[in-house]
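Re: the multi-chain job from yesterday

Posting the exact lines I submitted so nobody has to dig through the queue logs.
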Amino acid sequence: MSQFLQYAVSGLSIGALYALVALGLVLIYRSTRILNFGHGDVATVGTFFAFTLLSHNYNWTIAFPLALILGALISMVFYFVILIPAQRRNATLLGQIILTVGLSLIFQGLVSHFWGTEPQSFPFPLSDTKTWKIYKDVVISELSIGALIIGFAVSLVLFLLVQKTRLGLAMRATSENLPSAQTLGIPTRRVLSLSWGMAAFLGVLAGIFLAPALPLDPFFMLEPFLKGFAAAVLGGLNSLPGAVAGGLILGVAESLAGGYIAVAFKNTLAFLVIIVVLLIRPEGLLGKEFIERV
Amino acid sequence: MDLIESYKEELRLVRKFWTGFWIVLLLLALIFLPWYGKEHWVYILTLVFIFSIGVQGQNLLIGYTGQISFGQAGFLALGAFSFGHLLRMGVPVAVSLLCAGLVAALFGLLVGFPSLRLKGPYLSIATLGFGIAVYQVFVNSEILSGGRMGLTVQKLPALFGLSQTNTYYYFNLIVAVFFTIASYNLISSFLGRAFIAIRDNDISAEAMGVNLTVYKLLAFAISSFYTGVQGGLYALLLGYLEPNMFTFLETISLFVAVIVGGLASVEGSILGAAFVILVPQVFSNAKHLVPVVFGTAIILILIFEPLGLSGRWMKIRLYFRMWPFR
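And the result, structure tokens for all chains:
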């Protein structure tokens, strides 16, 4: 029983980070119908920027906010400089998704060029090895506690932002119906660019918390990004609560599968989840069914 | 364009004398290349031939049928490893190549099933999942991947008194020309018209009597057949195989080739294949910048020239045909 709890706890903490990645993807998908393939790589750039600042002996209280802002800025610049001109030239939806693939390639190449492909270790204020006992034999590391708290706090803040503020109302209106939001005087471009910025912010946040536990190389976000994808699909690509639920479920399921079945199965599980969910319930657990008018 | 008066004329691949003239000239130049070109260039062109087959397959799927697949690396791995294993069992090269294509096509059918219900973004995730799942199966299974040393594949012997590089060159040239003719015939036949109808609007295609189930699955099967054959040829050229050769990057290169070359164009596929092979050669000093070039190329092409290199080529031709008018 305590073994089961142990797996569940460590699954929850990694799941909270998957949820952050998934929230970023869903935020963009539900407002623009674009799957952002550059999400992981923008997060990588932000994390590496934080890494550079930390290794130049800046305090983490300066390094982390700067990295988060850098990620958000990159994403907003991408929206204004690349996506909007493409939309003006009537780029198709598929074309816009491919643009994010291009963004991902560019940053992947730049990060490997400037920081090298050798894995590095990320200095972090919370320790990965110092553990606290919470119940009998069940232990949790400081890092996992931090990840859990950040994951839940950020999800809560995002929920309040989207549901209770004027900006959130504008975001919901824009994702519901773009032309009518425009006629109502909502500055949709600014709202959408803020969504892109927020998504990248969440991505970099997840990256910073994932980096201490993984070897930090230019491809370290690829797997969490794909897991975040799986989580978003599981929860429903247009549902923010779904993204959180999907992330937590995927994290726990993965941890249990790794513990009870085989470690090698741990990574394949996410893709099995994707395929099964898409075949049985394509709109995900909490998503609304998307009906196409002919 | 020109007036076409009969169906027979529509099906003809070369409609004008000068088109035929240039094609023959190009083919002659390619055939005699090993006499005057450097060996390095012969090798690079061999790679372009191999790659162009897979790009044509991917273009049939993305450009003509409008279905997206991010799982090409999976088909490539399936084709390459089944080719390698068959060759080790003593099956002749041609038969193994055919089987490599067929194995990939079988899995293509399997991946095609989600495409019946999923569209656009969802389909891209499902196929992405497939590509990575195949990679992980090969990484985790030593019987399939040949263990840590990789799977050695018997190379082609030097035939007809040619050097080995030249043997490979001619062999792959013949296969690539065969597949190029096949793609031209495919897209001008009823199959190609059905694919294009599905791309333009699947619901109205169905209303016009195109069986969506059959044609979407066929598109996936044919496209993965091409990719499987590419994998087999690749295995034959390199002489050994390991799962790390078939990562997501391979999918991305095929994808970049299609976008850069031009959607829905066979010539474009060949140009795109040449682009993807040549860029790493040019940037051999700064390998990490290759993805940057690829990414920038996709973004620029999608914004400024959505039809890709082949679209640019058509515009240049039109300009000279119309000259001095515009």
